[in-house]
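Progress report, Aim 2. The chain analyzed during this reporting quarter is listed below.
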Amino acid sequence: MISKEEVILAYRLILGREPENGDVVDNYCHTVSSLQNLRELFMNSPEFIKKISERLDNPKLVRQRHPFNLPKIPVEINASRETLDLMFNRGSDTWEHMGFTEPYWSVITQDQYKINNFFKNSENFYSSGGPLFRDILSILKRNGINYMDLDNCLEIGCGVGRMTKFLAETFRKVIAVDISAQHLTMAKNYISAESIDNCEFIHINNLEKFGQFINIDFAVSVITLQHNPPPVISWVLKKILESLRPFGIAFFQIPTYRSGYIFEIERYLNKDRDNKIEMHFLPQENIFKIIDESGCICIESREDSMVGDETNTLSKSFLVRKK
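Predicted structure tokens for the chain:
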């Protein structure tokens, strides 16, 4: 094992900066076995290669993809039902707060979508759901899935209805759910104003409600699950996949890696609440296990750019079919 002081020195001497946070340091201490391995990780990082190439006056275009030798991230998954409820309620409180303070910015965290700027940018905001939806249709088509064979659609995390409109124009029925009552009200109002009447809106105010869905043809969740702690992501994902009818399809996105990420249940529950949007990561091995245990198979898994910074984070989109 290596010490915190050694990790901090590696940041300062090799990357020329301080560590992002204490979790990053702890992660290296737990997962890197020797100073030689630590040095290799730092010197093979895209950040170091970019810096040294610029210093040598030979700038290199560094593809921001994670190398195969990155350490495992320690993530606690198993939690009691009582603990799951506590974690879910923390997230619910945050999103209710966001629904009343910055409902649009909380969906797309760009300054033009803050309340004070939203009116002049509202058209861009709602139209932004179109390209994302068309990408999903392209993924279905590439894998030989005809969306016209899919009757109903379950949208997990509909927010204010940005993608709901496009789903409703394609599927006979859309069940749009969200943990924020305020976001859900805004989504209802938007969809109604668009003269769309084939949507059912459900407020998910407790985890039990995820178990009510059955015989779902198509389930979709994008930039939603990531805002829950890993044990909650695992529980919700399992319920979503269990809701699919035989040969039903699910498309979902989950961040699977961030350099230095650690999740410990007790530490998470003991930290102060601050009503800030959280970003969490569920290792890919856990996702594949859930897919298998839910009686599904993974048809396609692709890296995506849903979390922005690809230097330190990795997000993936999954296309899954029920057996």
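The chain has a mean pLDDT of 90. Residues 4-55 form one domain. These observations will guide the mutagenesis work planned for the next reporting period.
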